[in-house]
Amino acid sequence: MVVEIVGGLISGSLALLADAGHMVSDAAALGFSWLALRIGRRAATSRMSYGYRRLEILAAFVNGLALFGIAIWITIEAVQRFWQPVEVMAGTMLGVAVAGLLANIVAFLILHGGSHANLNMRSALLHVLGDLLGSVAAIVAAVVILWNGWTPIDPILSILVAVIVLKSAWHLVRSSAHILLEGTPSGMHLDEVRADLEQNVAGIQRVHHLHAWSITADRHMLTLHVVREPGAVPRDIIAAVRQRVADRFGVSHVTVQVEDAEDCRDDAHGSGNSPADGHDCAGMAG
């Protein structure tokens, strides 16, 4: 980062300064990601019953927003360069860019060995990938300037890198925000879960009050109410539902409340997931 800042100021290269600016945020973002992973290992407490693992998602969301800011800054600087061209020392720019590329390749290879399902790790990887692309763009720009002196290539490639960073940032922010808003896990459809349980678990008349959300990208939760057939044993239904959900949908943390039909008629004509479907029903939970 320091080398690219000095090299960018000396050479006049926006591509180098843009990459250096990205690295400034990376230092903070990677530190935040590391801290979130460390704190996330702490055991759950009575005050934080799910523990601290969702800090990983918060770190990913903040990092995604930081990527947005960086990409916008790069774009604004690049547009200004078109109106006010700056002389670029291509030789210095090329040397610094190559050094930056080598450093970013090492960081990318280290992070690439981590979990791709972990949004926090993905956010850190995207930051380094953006730096790597920035270094490649700076090298290409330096080569073009050395070859024919066409300096507009510097802001043009900077904008290209900004667009790539924006695309990655959008996916990251959208995924992490969905988890923070307790949205249904990706690939899971509640209507499908409901139909599967009603068709494949013996002793169930109806499933309602079905909700699914994620603590982290790879840790999902499910709660539901089931209306049992007359004579069906609640304990057996609970065990069967948990097993079916784990086998069919890969969710191991399931809370089931078993109810009798005569005690629960609140959603007989609804989907079972609307805000109005909030009446309590007597039953056994497990």
How many β-strand runs?
4
What CATH architecture of the largest domain would you give?
Up-down Bundle
Classify the helix fraction into a percent range.
55-70%
* Major sheet attributes: 4 strands, mixed
Number of domains: 2
Average pLDDT confidence is 82
Order of helices and strands: HHHHHHHEEHEE
Coarse shape: elongated
Per the CATH scheme, the topology name of the largest domain is Alpha-lytic protease prodomain-like
Structure characterization notes:
The protein folds into 2 domains: about 1-180, Alpha-lytic protease prodomain-like (Up-down Bundle), CATH 1.20.1510; about 190-260, 2-Layer Sandwich (Alpha-Beta Plaits), CATH 3.30.70.1350. It has 8 helices and 4 strands; from the N terminus they run αααααααββαββ. It has helices spanning about 1-10, 15-40, 55-85, 90-110, 120-150, 155-180, 190-200, 235-250, and strands spanning about 205-215, 220-230, 255-260, 285. Residues about 265-270 and about 275-280 have low confidence and may be disordered.
